[in-house]
């Protein structure tokens, strides 16, 4: 029988086609971490995610995510990517360009305690042999750049032989997410010199010797002529940005007015007195600040010390290295008997003299003279002077070779003795040539030096 039916009457049976959207099941959060919906429609009843939902994964403190940071619910009801895990890891510590870092092969450190011996002794050899040995599992899972696995060891060294390392040579990633030991840094080795003799000269190179130049007055500012610079003093490089110098070298004579930084410059690696003979290894550096000691007396030249801060870092090399700073306790007992080396250029040299072209950095040994005797020497010559506690007097050591007249140099004074950082002898800055009335270099009158030892803390505060 053929049934006919119209649109107004429903058929006796019909098929209802329902298209259901495929949802994604809850992926869950990683162990030692958690998940968070960060995009898309979101979750349904907290159990399913609609297509397009984006879930991000995070780890608790001291854990780092390994794998996909985000997963998306796809049309097929599956999540994109793979479920990430949280691993114990440490962020790599920052280091300077002077430090070389090496990741050591993964190995497990063992610790011996009294209990190890006790347990080993209490077990029979047979039991020990029969007991299975279980090695700790190596870390698994890739970490994002800049992280290292738990128990990873990093080894550090300085990239340059002119630097020494401070801090730990090896650091281990701990369960806390931190690194063991102290952050490494590399600082220039101070006070070390090979005393390289200059070419065709008997002079010695002192790599911390800094030549202090001043721009000639009246030339700076609108003059059509080339700038004229005069060598006025020597200073001592104590780190890559700091030079110690006598205060009278960087102030107007008899005043505490500091010379403008634009009218001063520091030259490192210099050997010849004649600027035209300077070698390519020299470094001409600008000055960012002149720090005068607050107790400087420009009349008596008491506390005759200042600091020059360099605008650009000095490049440490065989020709340019810092000198060490001595502590008062290093020389308190033996300072009076010390043989002190004074080095500097003849700032009074006549450029027209025949020997000027070959004149070099000069050095010689001096011995400390008792302050009272120093005052009496000058008084005998009709020159009343006061030698303060911030000064010491010294005169040429007749038993040692010398080509220097300290009264002409404005040089620096140094002593060599083993340092605290190394048993090898190191040169330490002890004084700066301050004043002298020995105009003929007869050595009948001692030269007065500004002490550096009492101002070590002040210098170090301004070295940072």
From TrEMBL:
InterPro entries: Peptidase_S1_PA, Peptidase_S1_PA_chymotrypsin, Peptidase_S1A, Serine_Protease_S1-Domain, Sushi/SCR/CCP_sf, Sushi_SCR_CCP_dom, Trypsin_dom. Residues 22-88, 131-188 form the Sushi domain. It comes from the Eukaryota. Keywords: Disulfide bond, Glycoprotein, Hydrolase, Protease, Repeat, Secreted, Signal, Sushi. The keyword Membrane does not apply. GO terms for biological process: proteolysis. PROSITE patterns: SUSHI (PS50923), TRYPSIN_DOM (PS50240). Its main location: secreted. One of its GO terms (molecular function) is serine-type endopeptidase activity. The keyword RNA-binding does not apply. Disulfide bonds join 59-86. It is found in: Secreted. Residues 189-464 form the Peptidase S1 domain. SMART domains: CCP, Tryp_SPc. GO terms for cellular component: extracellular region. Pfam families: Sushi, Trypsin. PANTHER family: INACTIVE SERINE PROTEASE PAMR1, PROTHROMBIN. This is Inactive serine protease PAMR1. It comes from Leptonychotes weddellii (Weddell seal). The gene is LOC102726214.
């Amino acid at each position: 029988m053929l049934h006919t039916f119209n649109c107004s009457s429903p058929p006796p049976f019909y098929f209802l086609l329902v298209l259901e959207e495929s949802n994604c099941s809850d992926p869950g959060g990683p162990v030692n971490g958690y998940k968070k919906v960060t995009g898309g429609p979101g979750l349904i009843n907290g159990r399913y995610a609609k297509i397009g939902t984006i879930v991000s994964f995070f780890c608790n403190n001291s854990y780092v995510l390994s794998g996909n940071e985000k997963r998306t619910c796809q049309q097929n009801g599956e999540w994109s990517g793979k479920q990430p895990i949280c691993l114990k890891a440490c962020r790599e510590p920052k280091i300077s360009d002077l430090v070389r870092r090496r990741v050591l092969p993964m190995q497990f450190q063992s610790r011996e305690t009294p209990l190890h011996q006790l347990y080993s002794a209490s077990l029979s050899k047979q039991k020990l042999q029969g007991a299975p040995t279980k090695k700790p599992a190596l870390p698994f899972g890739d970490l994002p750049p800049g992280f290292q696995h738990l128990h990873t060891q990093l080894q550090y060294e300085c990239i340059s032989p002119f630097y020494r390392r401070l801090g730990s040579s090896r650091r281990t990633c701990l369960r806390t997410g931190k690194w063991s030991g102290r952050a490494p840094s590399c600082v220039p080795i101070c006070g070390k010199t090979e005393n390289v003799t200059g070419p065709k000269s008997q002079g010695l190179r002192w790599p911390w010797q800094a030549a202090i130049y001043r721009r000639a007055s009246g030339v700076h500012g609108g003059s059509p002529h080339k700038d004229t610079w005069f060598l006025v003093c020597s200073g001592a490089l104590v780190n890559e940005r700091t030079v110690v110098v006598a205060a009278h070298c960087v102030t107007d004579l008899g005043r505490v007015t500091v010379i403008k930084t634009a009218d001063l410059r520091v030259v490192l690696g210099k050997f010849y007195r004649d600027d035209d003979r300077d070698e390519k290894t020299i470094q001409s550096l600008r000055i960012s600040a002149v720090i005068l000691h607050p107790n400087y007396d420009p009349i008596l030249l008491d506390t005759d010390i200042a600091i020059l801060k360099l605008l650009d870092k000095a490049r440490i090399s065989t020709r340019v290295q810092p000198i060490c700073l001595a502590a008062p306790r290093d020389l308190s007992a033996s300072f009076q008997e010390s043989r002190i080396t004074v080095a500097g250029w003849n700032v009074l040299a006549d450029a027209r003299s025949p020997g000027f072209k070959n004149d070099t950095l000069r050095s010689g040994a001096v011995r400390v003279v008792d302050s009272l005797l120093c005052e009496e020497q000058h008084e005998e010559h009709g020159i009343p002077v006061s030698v303060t506690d911030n000064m010491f007097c010294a005169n040429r050591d007749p038993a040692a070779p010398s080509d220097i007249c300290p009264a002409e140099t404005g040089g620096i004074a140094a002593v060599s003795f083993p340092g605290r950082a190394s048993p090898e002898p190191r040169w330490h800055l002890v004084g700066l040539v301050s004043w002298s009335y020995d105009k003929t270099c007869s050595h009948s009158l001692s030269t007065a030096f500004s002490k550096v030892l009492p101002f070590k803390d002040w210098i170090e505060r301004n070295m940072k």
